[in-house]
Every structure is written in C-alpha cells, then in structure tokens.
Design goal:
By secondary structure, this protein is of the alpha/beta class. Helices cover 20% and strands 32% of the residues. It has helices at residues 20-23, 36-46, 60-67, 88-94, 96-99, 118-127, 179-184, 197-206, 226-237; strands spanning 5-10, 30-31, 34-35, 51-56, 76-81, 104-108, 111-113, 131-137, 145-150, 153-159, 168-176, 211-216, 220-222, 243-244, 247-248, 253-255, 258-260, 265-267, 270-272, 275-277, 282-284, 287-288, 292-294, 299-301, 304-306, 309-310, 315-317, 323-324, 327-328, 333-335. The strands form seven sheets. The protein has a seven-stranded mixed β-sheet with strand order 5-4-1-6-11-8-12, with helices on both faces. A six-stranded parallel β-sheet has the order 14-17-20-23-26-29, with helices on one face. A hairpin with a 2-residue loop joins strand 9 (145-150) and strand 10. It is elongated.
Length: 357
C-alpha cells in the first residue's frame, strides 16, 4: 500500500470567533464536547494514515497540550512551527523537510467532514494523480474558492468569483505528491501577502501535471464562524447514541438522544435531545433543549438553554429568558440580578457581540 502522510493546518488566528479565540485556539473550540481539531485527526486516521504533522502558530502550546504525541487518538503527531500565518501554500513550503518525497493529505484543522475522507484517499492511492482536491456543491459558490472541471480533471481554480462558472467549492482537503513543492517554491505572494494554495494548484495545472477532483455528497462545514460551529454541533449531535453515566432524579424528564457524563447531576429539570452534558456538571430546575453541548464542570440553575455550546467551568443562573444560538466561553458567569434598580450590567471583552431583547 502506498505510504501517505497527513498534514493538518492549525495555525490560524480565528478572528471571526473572537473573543473566544483571544484566549483559545479556534481549532480547539469543542463541537459536541470534542475539539474541532480532533475530528480532522480522526478523519485522517480512519483513512489509514497515522503519521501526522500539525502546523502550529501562536497557539502552539495549547494545541500541543491537547493533542500531545497523538497516541490517545491513535496517531503519531509531530509539530511544525509557522512563524506567521503567511498562507496555506507557505505551510506546505515549510513542511517539505518533514514530508520528504511521500505523498500527503492536507487538511484544514477547522473543517469537519461528517463521512470522513477514506474514499477520497483511496481514490488517490489507486489513481496516482499529482494532486487531488476535495469539492462539494454549494448554493453560494461566490463565497468560496471554485473549481472548473473537464470531467474529473481540474482546469481552473478561482477564488470567490463574482460570476462563478461552477457550484463546486474547495472543501479544504487536498492530496499532493512531492511535485507540489515545486509549485509552492515558484508562486508569488497574493495581494494579501500570502502564498495561496489555489495559486500552487493552478501552477500544477498550467505545467500540465495531473490535477483531479473528488466531489463529496455528505455534509461538511468550515467552522470559522459562530453559526457554522452551531450548525456543526447540531449535525454531530444528531448522530449521538444515548448514554447516561451521571445521575437523573425522579423529578426530571429526559427525552431523545441524551448523553450525560460521569459525575454529572440532573435535578428537577427537562432535557430534550439531542444534547450532551460533560462530566461533573450540575443542571437544576432548568430546561436544556435540542442541539446543546454543555461541557465539564458547568452549573446551570433555573435557566433555559437551547441550540448552544457552553464551555467548561461556566455558570448560568436564573436567566429570565431562554439562552439560544450562543457560544459561551470557559469560566463565564451569566446570571440574572434581581436587585433594584433594574439595569443591564456587563463586563464584555474585545470583539464581543451581545444582543439584548
């Protein structure tokens, strides 16, 4: 079997998810209580690739702490430090001495592909093109890099075209052989000062190398924005197998696919799945509705939550209205203050968004 390595890009700043990403790597924001990056690692592992290199930037210490040597996820993880976010093709360029002559799959670390990439990798193994790109049909191609095809052969890539000639968007997963290093060493930075992977692939096309495509039909998501993370959370939760390892008292109601972690307690509450509650959390006198992920050591009292993600260590008390469509960071306190006079009182970090109704 052809040896293939994995390259995961995990160095972006996550500006669209601030303020969460002021203090946390965007690739470690949890979806269904599992870091987004872990879905990428597992997808590569399940395709039969266990030698994985992770390109890291400013958040390298946090990424390394979460993934370690990769053994807990069934892979061998090696880290490549990128001095600055100088583009996807730059990340490939600095990886040459690690990847050598072996073909590799490049996976953007904030992507989730529900059905994995095994078929994509298997096709590359059997067909041996110089490059293979993963595509998906989208209703809004002008928001993506778009591929123009002749059969399954790629003839042109256009970044966010005003008038798209196809509805096939680049998903953020690519297969390359070592010819890509010739490409990344011959292209120039784009107008934004980055080496673009689309320019590198277009170089391969123009130089008559074989660039093929593989179109997926399943669900995928680039989790760069809040609404995308919540959508990914919803889709992943729908596949949950119910499991209750904590305690639920007789005054509580549990319906649908619900996971309750070890040490968690549910008292006088209503849980409607799909939802997941992590370890050592407490839900009292509350309603937790569908498509909600509550992490470890969270306290929820006399409140309602739906279609949201609550990170570890947070406290939600006595909210007078339902919390929905929200991403709550670590060790946050949200509470209703009943003292007089009544007023809104906030301590809000940079780049936050608060809506009051």
């Amino acid at each position: 079997m052809r040896t293939i390595k994995g390259l995961i890009l995990s160095g972006g700043k996550g500006t669209r998810l601030r303020p969460i990403t002021h203090t946390s790597a965007k690739q470690l924001v949890p979806v269904a209580n599992k870091p987004i990056l872990f879905y990428a690692i597992e997808a590569i592992r399940d395709a039969g690739i266990t030698d994985i290199y992770i390109v890291v930037g400013d958040t390298k210490d946090e990424i390394k702490a979460a993934v370690g040597n990769g053994s807990a996820l069934g892979v061998k993880a090696t880290y490549i430090e990128q001095e600055a976010p100088l583009g996807l093709a730059h990340a490939v360029k600095i990886s040459e001495k690690y990847l050598g002559k072996e073909p590799f799959v490049m996976f953007l670390g904030d992507n989730i592909i529900k059905d994995g990439i095994k078929n994509f990798v298997d096709e590359f193994r059997s067909e041996h093109p110089n490059c293979q790109i993963l595509l998906a049909k989208v209703p809004n191609p002008s928001e993506f890099g778009v591929a123009e095809l002749d059969a399954d052969r790629v003839v042109r890539l256009v970044e966010k075209p005003k008038i798209p000639k196809s509805d096939l968007a680049l998903v953020g997963v690519y297969m390359f052989d070592s010819t890509v290093f010739k490409a990344v060493n011959n292209i120039k930075p784009s107008w934004r000062g980055e080496l673009e992977i689309t320019d590198a692939i277009q170089y391969l096309i123009d130089k008559k190398f074989v660039v093929r495509s593989h179109t997926i039909t399943g669900w995928w998501k680039d989790t760069g924005k809040l609404e995308d993370i919540l959508e990914a959370n919803r889709i992943v939760l729908m596949a949950l197998e119910p499991r209750i390892e904590g305690s639920v008292d007789s005054k509580s109601q549990v319906a649908g696919n619900v996971v309750i972690g070890e040490g968690s307690e549910v008292k006088e509450s209503v849980l409607r799945g799909p939802l997941i509650i992590g370890k050592n959390s407490k839900i009292t006198g509350s309603y937790v509705g569908p498509f909600t992920s509550i992490h470890d050591n969270v306290l929820v009292e006399n409140s309602e939550i739906e279609h949201s993600i609550v990170l570890e260590g947070s406290t939600i008390l006595n909210l007078g209205a339902r919390l929905e469509g929200s991403l709550i960071g670590k060790n946050v306190v949200l509470k209703k203050n009943f003292s007089k006079p009544q007023a809104y009182r906030f301590m809000v970090g940079d780049s936050s968004q608060v809506e009051v109704y």
